[in-house]
Specification:
With 287 residues, this protein is α/β, with parallel strands linked by helices. It has a single domain, classed as Metallo-beta-lactamase, Chain A (4-Layer Sandwich), CATH 3.60.15.10. Helix content is 27%, strand content 25%. It has 10 helices and 14 strands. The chain has a 7-stranded mixed β-sheet with strand order 6-5-4-3-2-1-14. Helix 4 links the parallel strand 5 and strand 6. The longest helix is centred in the C-terminal third of the chain and has 13 residues. The N and C termini lie far apart (37 Å). Bound molecules: zinc ion (2 copies). One zinc ion binds next to loops.
């Protein structure tokens, strides 16, 4: 018997009929900001909204949430992937103003030194929890911050795989990111642009490009073959570097990855590139 989270057979055939397509009435993703200047995304359900990372100010969270057509008072919780400042800078004020709990790994809760007025609940990889009517499954991610997490969100026959700041695609990350209707995946840098960029010392370039750094366009593109199934409808390129990547370069790489997929996987796959100056609302809404 396979784990309920194992990648399902979507081909039909001797194992039985292919699983039904993901529904459209469960989950929406809104990317308010992503990149080294600040990250914040919303997972919206009919029961409420989960804020994933809060590396922008509370004022910006509220303004951008409203710009997505949503009421910030529907935010029920903040989930934090890791302690880096571009993911936590606005957590304390936002959690306090909205009166919502914060969930993060124990190392992140300690590393970010949350003031006592923030109620932080520790998360463990592979221990699902229920937030705003969503089953959230945290999973371990290789990155240069302790106990960094990615998240899989599941609700009513719908799923989002979400992972930024990942040095390389591990088996564990692949397991939880695969076969989602919406896949939000880091596509941080172009390898040649990183190598040529004069503004970073060699040590920083090694860190960014290393196994505990950030995913390149090429790695994200190659990863699509592992992660995308016939039920995947959109891939969102996340955490695009402002110095060592361009939206068009990222898009070209992800589209090349899509074009290599089997027709059943790639034919309808939408490629979206999000960025600091390119918030994207309503990903996953039926068009
Ligand atoms: Zn980051
Ligand atoms: Zn980071």
């Amino acid at each position: 018997m396979t784990s309920p989270l194992a990648r399902p057979d979507t081909s039909g055939g001797p194992c039985g009929p292919a699983p039904a397509p993901w529904g459209h009435d469960g989950l929406r993703l809104h990317v308010l900001a992503t990149g080294s200047k600040g990250n914040a995304s919303l997972v919206e359900t009919p029961e409420g909204i989960i804020l994933v990372d809060c590396g922008i100010s509370c004022r910006q969270v509220i303004a951008r949430t409203r710009a997505c057509g949503l009421d910030p008072l529907r935010i029920r919780a903040i989930l934090v992937t890791h302690e880096h400042v571009d993911h936590v800078a606005g957590v304390r004020v936002t959690a306090g103003k909205l009166g919502v709990p914060v969930y993060a790994s124990l190392a992140t809760l300690r590393g970010a030194r949350w003031p006592s007025e923030v109620s932080g609940t520790p998360l463990q990889a592979r221990r699902p929890l229920e937030v705003a009517g969503v089953r959230v499954i945290p999973f371990s991610v290789p990155h240069d911050a302790p106990e960094t997490l990615g998240f899989r969100f599941e609700r009513a026959g719908d799923a989002i795989g979400f992972c930024t700041d990942i040095g390389h695609l591990t088996d564990e990350a692949g397991e939880y990111l695969s076969d989602a209707r919406i896949l939000a995946l880091e596509s941080n840098h172009d390898v040649a642009m990183l190598s040529d960029y004069p503004g970073y010392p060699a040590s920083l370039k090694r860190r960014i490009g290393g196994d505990d750094g950030h995913l390149s366009n090429a790695q994200a593109s190659e990863g699509l073959a592992r992660l995308v199934t016939s039920r995947t409808q959109a891939v969102v390129g996340m955490h695009i570097s402002e110095h060592t990547n361009l939206p068009g370069v990222c898009r070209d790489a992800l589209e090349r990855g899509r074009d290599l997929l089997a027709p059943a996987q790639g034919r309808h796959l939408q490629i979206i590139v999000a960025g600091e100056a390119r918030p994207v609302a309503g990903i996953g809404a039926e068009s």
